[in-house]
From TrEMBL:
This is GlxA family transcriptional regulator. CDD domains: GATase1_AraC_1. It comes from Streptomyces chengmaiensis. Residues 218-316 form the HTH araC/xylS-type domain. The lineage of its organism: Bacteria, Bacillati, Actinomycetota, Actinomycetes, Kitasatosporales. Coiled coil: none annotated.
């Protein structure tokens, strides 16, 4: 089996989950490969001087080796965290010199800022935590910053959004290297979604909206998410919340930041996208499962929001996946 060593850069103020999330994915993957090679992704951690670092949450991490003299064999992972606000110039210099040697260069969260400081993202498309995209764009105008995706692949360089997005990125790489079944097995062990494409939004529809303060409205939000195929008219939802339609619509908008109709539209579209990506169901079946009623209604929603009909969206998605099936 081809081994793909992973070198993880550590520094004071690093976000611990940026490190441990991808490491857990790579570590678990070996147990599910064809020959169950637990060392499919040999992992090393390194800090500037080889000394322990304190994470942003106060945990101490002890690296395996100092960065000086450490060779990048395959994958270099650069996490983010508070330590990226005023990075040690020696770290930036090390990245500038050594990161170009990596066959795969990955950043998690604000680790993209370190790559940008080293000039490694100039002329490339990249993302980072949504709260730091403006900062990345202002400080590094040569970087094409996309604030929406969970992760972005641009050649051998991949940048991911905030914190847990590093898990999504790592899972996508495991899928490239060893196939969907291995990646899915890892996702199940870690109890996370297997999000294959980087073009998913950083926020799900539920996260994009505020959570209502009152329990009846929160229950309605849960109901919508769990029953996209149901009767989600204002009248039906108001009855579930035991409010008049007018009072419900007003309260829902005030507490969630969007109208009930807009929330339902986002939930249904997100559910339809996932079914197109992860199932073999036909467009007509998916349109019923997502509450659109007819394929034409779903087509109009997709064209209006995504600029592509459902069949075209599925074709593009599969093209995106197949474009990355060759292992580096």
């Amino acid at each position: 089996m081809t081994k793909r060593p992973v070198l993880v850069v550590l520094f004071d103020g690093v976000q611990s989950l940026d490190v441990t999330g991808p490491v857990e994915v790579f570590s678990a993957a070996g147990h599910f490969t064809a020959d169950a090679d637990a060392d499919a992704y040999p992992i090393r951690t390194a800090s500037l001087d080889g000394a322990p670092v304190r994470t942003a949450s106060g945990l101490r991490l002890t690296p395996d080796t100092p960065l000086a003299g450490t060779e990048v064999e395959h994958t270099l992972l650069v996490p983010g965290g508070e330590g990226t606000r005023a990075p040690d110039p020696r770290l930036v210099d090390w990245l500038r010199e050594h990161a170009p040697r990596a066959r795969r260069l990955l950043s998690v969260c604000t680790g993209a800022l370190l790559l940008a400081e080293a000039g490694l993202l100039d002329g490339r498309r990249a993302t980072t935590h949504w709260a730091h995209c403006d900062r990345l764009a202002r400080r590094h105008p040569a970087v094409d910053v996309d604030p929406d995706p969970i992760f972005v692949r641009d050649g051998r360089i991949a940048t991911s959004a905030g914190v847990t997005a590093g898990i999504d990125l790592a899972l996508s790489l495991v899928e490239e290297d060893h196939g969907r079944e291995v990646a899915l097995a890892v996702a199940r062990v870690l109890v996370v979604f297997l999000r294959r494409p980087g073009n998913q939004a950083q926020f799900s529809a539920q996260l994009a909206a505020q959570t209502a303060r009152r329990e009846p409205l929160r229950e309605v939000q849960r109901w919508i998410s769990e029953h996209p195929e149901g009767d989600l008219s204002v009248e039906a939802l108001a009855a579930r919340a035991r409010l008049s339609p007018r009072h419900f619509a007003r309260a829902f908008r005030i507490e969630t930041g969007m109208t009930p109709g807009r929330y339902v539209e986002r939930i249904r579209l997100e559910h339809a996208r996932r079914l197109l990506e992860d199932s073999r169901d036909g467009v007509e079946e998916i349109s019923r499962a997502c509450g659109y009623g007819t394929p034409e209604a779903m087509r109009r929603a997709f064209v209006r929001t995504l600029g592509a009909a459902p069949a075209e969206y599925r074709r593009r998605f599969r093209g995106h996946v197949s474009a990355h099936t060759e292992s580096p």
